[in-house]
C-alpha cells in the first residue's frame, strides 16, 4: 500500500483515483470542487483540505489538472506541493496534458528541491480512465519511472517511458497532431466522395484496405455506418471532444514555435479546429469535423 495524494478529481482524475483505491492504496484527494472531493470519499478515498495538506503525508503525489498554469501553481506556488514535500522522499507525477516547457520547468524546480518528478500524460479518455486501460506516456528519470510503474499500472495498460523530463508531453502532442491532421484528411475525403456521388461504404471498403488506411478511418470513422462503435453513430457524443483536440493542437503549435519545427499541416489543423469549436461543436466528438466540413463551401 502506498500513501498517495491525488490532486484534481475531475472527469479523468476521479476514475483514476478510484482505480488506485481499488488496488489497495490510501488516496487522499483534493480538488477545488467540494462535490468532487465528496465523490472521492464516497468511492473510498480520504478528503484533504488543501493540496499541501494532501501532500504533507504522501509518498507519491499525482495531479490531473486542466492546463500548465494550474500545474505550475500547484507545484511551485505559495503553499504548493514542492514546499510541502521538500526534505522527504516524495515522488511527483503530473498526468495532466500541458505544454512541454512548463513540464520541464516544474520538473527542474522539483529536482532542485530533491524531488523526482515525472510528466505522465495519458490517452484513452474517460472510458480508459474508468476501465484502467489508459496509455501513459512518461518523461523523467529511469529510477522515478521504475518507482511509478506499479501505480501507473493500476490506472493504465500501456505504459511507455518516452525519455527525460517533458518527453511524455512531447509524445502526447506529436501523436495528437497526427490524429488531428489525419482525422481532417479522412473527413475531407468523405466530403469529396459525397460530392462525387461515391458511396461512403465504397470509399471505406477501398481505403480501409488501401494506402489511405489509418486509425481515424478504420477505428473511428467520422461518417455513420462503417465502424459501428465510432462516435459518428451516436450523434458525435464524445469520445474525445473537439475542445480537447483544439487544446492539444495548440500545445503542439506552441512547441513547434518554441523549437522552430516546421508543422504547416499542424498549423492548418489548429486553425480548422478553432473554426469547428467556434461553430458550436466544442462539446462534440472531434470527428464531428465531418459535419462542419460538409457544410462549408469551397473558397
Ligand atoms: P476536468 O476539468 O474534468 O478536471 C480537472 C479538475 O481539476 C477539476 O475538477 C478542477 O476543479 C480541478 N482543479 C483545477 N485547479 C485545481 C487546483 N489548483 N487544485 C485542485 N484541483 C484543481 O478535466 P479532465 O477531463 O479530468 O482533464 C484533466 C487533464 O487530462 C487535462 O489536462 C486534459 O487535457 C487531460 N486529458 C483529458 C482527457 C479527457 O478525455 N477528458 C483525455 C486525455 C487527457
Task: Walk me through what this model shows.
The protein is α/β, with parallel strands linked by helices and 299 residues long. It is 53% helix and 13% strand. Strands 3-2-1-4-5-6 form a six-stranded parallel β-sheet, with helices on both faces. Helix 4 packs parallel to helix 6, helix 9 packs across helix 12 and helix 12 runs antiparallel to helix 13. The longest helix is centred in the middle third of the chain and has 30 residues. The protein starts with a strand and ends in a 5-residue tail after the last helix. The structure holds nicotinamide-adenine-dinucleotide (NAD). Nicotinamide-adenine-dinucleotide binds next to helix 4, strand 7, helix 7 and helix 12.
Helix content: 40-55%
Number of helices: 14
- Biggest beta sheet summary: 6 strands, parallel
- Beta-strand residue fraction: 5-15%
Residue-averaged pLDDT: 97
Q: Ligands bound here?
A: nicotinamide-adenine-dinucleotide
Major β-sheet strand ordering:
3-2-1-4-5-6
What is the level-2 CATH architecture name of the largest domain?
3-Layer(aba) Sandwich
User: Pairing-aware structural class of the strands and helices?
Assistant: alpha/beta
The arrangement of helices and strands along the chain is EHEHEHEHHEHEEHEHEHHHHHH
CATH domain fold name of the largest domain: Rossmann fold
CATH-defined superfamily of the largest domain: NAD(P)-binding Rossmann-like Domain
Terminus-to-terminus distance: 60 Å
Radius of gyration over alpha carbons? 20 Å
The gross shape turns out to be: elongated
CATH class of the largest domain: Alpha Beta
Number of separate strands? 9
Tally of structural domains: 2
